[in-house]
Amino acid sequence: MVVDHYIVLGLPSGEEALKLSEEEIRKAYRLKALDLHPDKRPDDPHAHEKFRRLKTSYDVLKHEKTRKLFDDSLLRMKHEKQHKIDSKRRKMVSDLKKRKRSAFTPSDERLLRRFVEEVEKRVIVNLDCHLLDWTTGILGESLDWDLSSRNSTSSESTTNQSCTVEQHSRC
């Protein structure tokens, strides 16, 4: 695992780190060094190791060449990690699509299609009955509403489905 030297110094990492000046890096190092110095933390057995890590991070970032190499490797690793996540996401989506496709067998699709057709047919009949209500209310007369002339894919819809004002109570 690669250490992000900006984070060790308490600085922002990534694109924001590229904009930091040497002066900002030096100030961050001095503030952290005051905090982590082993003389200030005699009770902490890991103080010397933390301070050594801080010093190493500062040495990498204070020189322009080593900082550029570190920035390039850090950005490359972040892009590789993002690419790996994206490839996993694409695989997960494709697996999900395969599962959805395999969930319905051809017979299930036929049943679903018939169910949708039946629902559509009932909605049309219901709308026609409501339209009859509306026209009867406006005209005040009885109208015959013949649905047998409608084109439909099922043979059931070709049967005579007329709805008059008297029969409308069952619609």
TrEMBL record:
It comes from Arabis nemorensis. Residues 150-164 have a biased composition (Low complexity). PANTHER family: DNAJ DOMAIN CONTAINING PROTEIN, EXPRESSED. This is J domain-containing protein. Residues 150-171 are annotated as: Disordered. SUPFAM superfamilies: Chaperone J-domain. Residues 4-74 form the J domain. Pfam families: DnaJ. PROSITE patterns: DNAJ_2 (PS50076).
